[in-house]
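Subject: Sanity check before I submit

Could someone independently write out the structure tokens for this chain? I want to compare against mine line by line before I put it in a report. The sequence has 518 residues.
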Amino acid sequence: MQINLKGDIVILDEAHNIEDICRDAASVDLRDDNLAIAAYDCKNVWCKCRDRDQDIYYENVSCKCRNRDRDIYITIQTYLTDIVKFLGTLDAKQNVSINDYWLGAEFLVLLDMNNIGSSRFPAFHNASKEAIQNFEKIKQDPKPDKTIRVISRDTKKILEHLSFSMQMLTSDISVNDYRVCVVESIEPSGKKKIPKNVWISTKRSLRTMKLLCMNPATVFAPLARTVRSVILASGTLTPITSFQSELGTQFPHIVNPDHVVSKEQIYVRCIPRGPNGKTLMANYENVNSWNFQDELGSLVLQVCDAVPYGVLCFFSSYIARDKILSRWESNGTWNKLMELKKTFVEPKENKDLPAVMTEYRNVIEESSSKSFRETSGAILFAVFRGKVAEGIDFSDNEARCVLAVGIPYKKMDEVSMKMDYNNSNKSKGFLSGSEWYTVNAFRALNQALGRCIRHKNDWGAVLLVDARLQNQHRINYLPKWIKTKWLPDGNYNLQTELEDFIAIQIARERGEKCVTAV
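---
Independent answer below. Compare away.
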């Protein structure tokens, strides 16, 4: 954002994802066709014009360009072209595994061997800075000289990304914080065409050089050193154990206050078994079994029968959710569910979500006009880390219960790389790979749980569906407001407890006294 933050106080709200955001900000994807087009753009800038009929170049004597400026764009053009040619010589794969990645230092050796690494980067970097300055100067001029050519905005972005990534790779401090791979893919339809005389490795496929940052401190630590104070704030920072090591910053003040609502307004229970007594452990193997899917279906029916208005149900992934919902459609659970509540499913595309949310809220608003004993409401099936779990406010009747199915451990090659990185850098204070893995999963779980309680007068039930959460070690990763209301496992009647809890809350809202059965 090009803001001078020296001596300022920076407050980052919703900071529970700051580690991932910093790693993403420091990671770069560079496609060979975009690099080639940027090179072509620079060739057009250095004072030559193309004869469109003969496809040749000639000196444009009317262009106001000094020799030094021409050298700048020639330097950039040749470097980008050589990078593209280098990518064309590498073995690339469509499906990349952890074994297909280079360590940052290993990839730098490859760049040096092809004369596009440490020796040539400084000249490219200096030339890019000047080209970007020329671009900014022209764009800021209210009456720019139209005879002066500059790079396009897309080329400016390419130069910034490539310069940053090469700075990281050629730095002794940060080179080992990166993993690099080259991925091959088919050219997507509808994209802008590459000019005929632009060189790329093949006409049918594209190659992307991915530089993945493993250490969020690469971005965050320089910020923390610059400002007077940096404050991370979120309703779900728990677990907090990874922040200091991952961000390379000491936080001398850690505040973990009580929740804004009273304990009586929250019902929390781990659900290790379903209504039929079958164990509910939402690991990968069980989630794919019919026994688990059918028992979970019975539990959801029970909850929807007991809880009025809105219910949110979160799954670990779209694949797991869709597999379970498909089973419910075939075994009759879905039809029974639709008799109890209007059903909604979080779409995978963000653009489709507003329409779903509008209809969901309309159903809740309509049901809110009825008595809680006769209303139906709606249930929304979503995923951890999705738009619903991360950024949408469900207050009052929009979420009277949250069902969290399982613990959202990520299964990705980049996660495996990050775990390996942490294990290799434990001496620097990083959490072990397995500990980081667990913290990452529970932070996503805790964020979803927070959808239920949105203000001091709100109330709701939180049900964590997984027998693994009976383990005290795992309970310690949950937020304070959940742990302080945690009900011990034992003999209980979930439907009765939910109905009593809801009756008490409705009576409290009405200012009435409510006597429940013992």
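---
OP: Matches mine. For the report I'm noting this point. The first strand starts at residue 9 and ends at 13.
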